[in-house]
Amino acid sequence: MTTMLGAQKEAWPKSLTYATTWPRLANGGSDLIREWIGKTKKPRLIIIDILEKVRERVTNKQTTAIQCRL
């Protein structure tokens, strides 16, 4: 954030919401995002920096089963 917006934390946008922890999307994370969108005035951008940490884990066995169905 400092690289993007500078060292002056006071100058960061007041509407900026920044979360460092979040439940997995399948465990309520998607619902929390939708809730945030509903409560936020003119939401413009959602960035999920480490997608691997929030999406549902899929094993190789599950991936193969999904590919076979396609």
Structural account:
The chain is an all-alpha fold and 70 residues long. Helix content is 36%, strand content 0%. The chain has helices at 2-5, 29-39, 60-69. The protein is flat, with a radius of gyration of 17 Å.
Could you give a short description of this structure?
The protein has 3 helices and no strands. The chain has 70 residues and is mostly helical.
What key phrases describe this protein's structure?
disordered C terminus, single chain, flat, mainly alpha, 70 residues
Q: Spans with pLDDT under 50 lasting ≥5 residues?
A: 64-70
Tally of alpha and pi helices: 3
> What letter string, H or E per element, gives the SSE order?
HHH
Strand content: under 5%
Distance from N terminus to C terminus (CA atoms, Å) equals 41 Å
Oligomeric assembly: single chain
Extended strand count: 0
SSE arrangement:
Layout: H1 2-5, H2 29-39, H3 60-69
